[in-house]
Specification:
37% strand; eight-stranded mixed sheet; four-stranded mixed sheet; alpha+beta; 312 residues
């Protein structure tokens, strides 16, 4: 009778990974400069391996001690410790669990970093001509999300309308671009503008000075007018100098100059006026003398007749 052969087999049951939500962190909020610990646990067989990545593909910054800092695209381990967190580390982190048994699983955790608003002004001095359009820009960083608005330097709030267009462009989850577009500039539009940002932590503002510039056409016209004036003056000077030289090349006083002719006319007019006044005074004097003589002549015979009657 042939011997019975025995075969032994080992059955290993493999289980794909599964994240334990009760033991895994959720979204987290920390102040800038603080610390955050993200935990991710998973079950399965074989035991799953945990890997951390950033959703946007940027590097994870791990700090060990005061000055030691390492960067990596992936970090392994159930706990991800982040210290001295900055706003650049804000975003979504992916916890990926894998054990060689498909499929791998992941969980998304959002890290929110809170900080005081920051306003940066690329151009603090902006110039534009009247009746043109101009754009003012402020870059704002704030978390949590801030309320942003524009004001004039006198405190008047700018409201969107036909001439004022207010827009915001989001660059990332904490940075936006405030844009104020002013159409058909008027003289009253020139002056100071403030871009103000406020959130639950604080507020800040940036200032832009808008000034009036000359139109290029006006500037060229003014330069042309100045050039024409300079040419006219130079031409008059040359003409005067040429007319003031005799055949020997010596300068002499020009007789027919406009200034001398005008002075001569004024002098002659003064002389005629003086002679007229003297003649008028003489006539008045002669008339007065003649009147007195007539009165004396008329009264003399009467006086004589009265005297004769008295003697009789």
């Amino acid at each position: 009778m042939a011997p019975r052969l025995l075969e032994t087999a080992v059955l290993e049951v493999v289980i794909p990974p599964d994240i334990i939500n009760e033991e895994t962190s959720g979204d987290m909020m920390v102040p800038e400069g603080g610390s955050a610990k993200l935990v991710c646990r998973a079950r399965g067989h074989p035991k799953p391996k945990i890997t951390w990545r950033r959703e946007d593909g940027r590097e994870i910054i791990a700090r060990n001690g005061a000055h030691q800092k390492t960067k990596a695209l992936a970090v392994e381990g159930e706990m991800l410790a982040l210290t001295k967190v900055t706003r650049s580390e804000m975003g979504a982190y992916m916890c990926i669990a894998s054990n060689g048994v498909p499929p791998s699983v992941s969980k998304r955790m959002k890290l929110q970093v809170h900080f005081h608003p920051l306003v940066q002004v690329p151009n603090q001095l902006v110039g534009a001509p009247v009746l043109t359009d101009v754009t003012l820009v402020c870059n704002v960083e704030a978390s949590p999300k801030a309320i942003n608005y524009w004001q004039r330097e006198n405190g008047e709030m700018i409201i969107a309308g036909d001439r004022y267009v207010l827009t915001e462009k989001e660059n990332n989850m904490y940075a936006i671009e405030m844009i104020l577009h002013i159409k058909r500039l008027q003289t009253s539009d020139f002056g100071g503008y403030k871009c103000i940002s406020k959130n639950s932590i604080g507020d800040t503002e940036g200032t832009i000075r808008l000034y009036e510039m000359e139109r290029p056409g006006k500037k060229n016209q003014r330069e042309d007018d100045n050039e024409v004036t300079k040419n006219d003056i130079a031409l008059k000077d040359n003409r005067h100098e040429d007319g003031s030289r005799n055949q020997n090349g010596r300068l002499y006083k020009e007789r027919g100059s406009d200034a001398e002719l005008q002075n001569g006319c004024e002098t002659l007019s003064i002389r005629w006026s003086t002679m007229y006044l003297l003649a008028l005074t003489l006539l008045v004097t002669l008339a007065t003398t003649a009147t007195k003589t007539t009165i004396i002549t008329a009264t003399t015979p009467t006086a004589l007749k009265s005297r004769s009657a008295g003697n009789l």
